[in-house]
Write a structure and sequence with these properties.
The structure is a homodimer of 129-residue chains. With 129 residues, chain A is of the alpha+beta class. The first copy, chain A, contains three helices and seven strands, in the order αββββαββαβ. In chain A, strands 2-1-5-6-7-4-3 form a seven-stranded antiparallel beta sheet. Chain A starts with 9 loop residues before the first helix and ends with a strand. Chains A and B meet through β1, β2, β5, β6 and β7 of A and β1, β2, β5, β6 and β7 of B.
Chain lengths: 129, 129
Amino acid sequence: VPTIPASHRDLLDGPHVVSLATVGADGLPQVTAIWAMLDGDAVRTSLYRGRQKYRNLLANPNATLFAIDPTNQYRTLEVRGTADIADDPDLGFLQRLLSCYGTDLEGFHGPKDDRVVVTLDPARVVALG
Amino acid sequence: VPTIPASHRDLLDGPHVVSLATVGADGLPQVTAIWAMLDGDAVRTSLYRGRQKYRNLLANPNATLFAIDPTNQYRTLEVRGTADIADDPDLGFLQRLLSCYGTDLEGFHGPKDDRVVVTLDPARVVALG
């Protein structure tokens, strides 16, 4: 299994907004800005079941996370893989993710029901710069 | 045809690095950092034929450009569409693109042969923030 190189782990360890690409039923990639974190060596994010990207992943688990270093736009990390979806009934994972971004459930304005944990099983990792 | 709203044109008018998502033969999205520009209302970039993303687009023209405002990561522009590929034999387009990024053919270190102009025909535009 490809792993995230130590040189680029910071792009998923800090409070950076990253991009998630999924593929819609029409075949067009959907790309949105998300929060994500490294959980050990796993790349994880939290999604709300009401979102298009969640529906895309249910139908087609192929997904790619892409991070650009905000201080050096030529330093990037791409993780292509398949998404595993699990429930987050007590919001334990969401709380861990929020803490990486300096906030908590009270400070979080997104939906707090119907959250899932998405773990990207990496097939290919490309670290540049 | 959806157009880029005036509120978000700056994300493609300035020298910002943006992301391009294509879909590989294995079905996994590929996301890379690219330079792009607005040419009137058309979203255009320049690609080298040696790149994976060029081969992806030849086989599957579905592509999405995604820009995050570097000064406000919650302000984003997503343009989903299909890619039209044309030759750039005299590098006229490449030179225009480079000038948007403050450089020219002499200062450009990428391949200068086998360049194509990729124009994204927008099917859906999502401007947030």
